[in-house]
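Example 3.2
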Amino acid sequence: MIKVLHVVGTKPRGGIGTVLKEMVKLMDKENFSNDFIYSDLPFDSDFKNFVTKYGSSVIEMPSFRNGNLFKYVYLLNRFYKVNSRNYDILHVHSANTGILDLFFGYIYGIKNRIVHSHSSKFSDVWIKAVRNSFIYFFAKFFVTGKIACSKEAGLFLFKSSDFLIYRNAIDIDYFSFSIENRLNMRLRMGFKDTLVIGHVGNFDKVKNHTFLIQVFKELTLKVDDIVLCLYGEGILKDDVTKLVFALGINDKVRFMGRMNNMNEELSGVDIIIFPSLFEGIPLSLVEAQACGLPVISSNTISKEVICSDRFSMLPLDGNIDLWVEEVMKYSKLSVESRSLYNEKLRKGIYSSFVNVKVLENYYSLLI
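Structure, written as tokens:
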């Protein structure tokens, strides 16, 4: 059996957490074992409960922030000193926070040490980008394998084409459009003929909620029965809430929080708007396309995410009218046609079943 230790950095949330759950669920349990190590508080009990159900172990380390760095290094060193012999592969999903894992993995004899690029930038904050770039400069000396979620993300981090592409894939059927789910969601929320705009993502700077709210404000001037559903949590949620109230659209914006039934929620949404400053392959957009949803995103993310003809990429140059026009165009599409798109994606590059087989083969070739 090939034993893999996945280094997630801080708690696995959002797209990376979803990708890892799909991997654990589908990977051959007789030939592969996947454990996870991550830090930060509070720990993600949902992720832990999911992966342990499929036989994985989770190692929870204290946060390395707030003066805990020396304690963190001490405990991490002790863990690898005792447990490195139990693993064939170290798979690091955070190139900057995983530098110590790569170092200790090297010191204590884990022969295969993979770095996985999940984004096309180190950070949207320049000082953090410089810091993370500096950290990876040293981390790369302990790396023996390279994986990326897209060609763009791989070329960004590795500066060459010598890497495996393991896409942020999903269970395509799970996100198929359902008229029953649509009716249930809209009945619960009190939507009848409402045009429902959706956004899925944490309230972080990179998600560009300010621009999203500005676009939606203009849409409310054109469409009376319209609502914006914001799925996610995050440190900027209060700021976004204040902006919504300042613009007087608080009666048309719903803060939905994190939900475990996004497959059902997406059936009730009509259009996704996604104006991120940068991304690798946003998993939420793959999920939306599997549900037949039209997507309007910024042109700053990888074009590799496009897998349907209901996808538009627009610039973030302040031309809000362009975004509004695109929404109005998609608002005329029939709901019934959405069910056709799931079949188109099922055998494609974003099927989690297809991608897990790629990763199994890659792991096998290393041993």
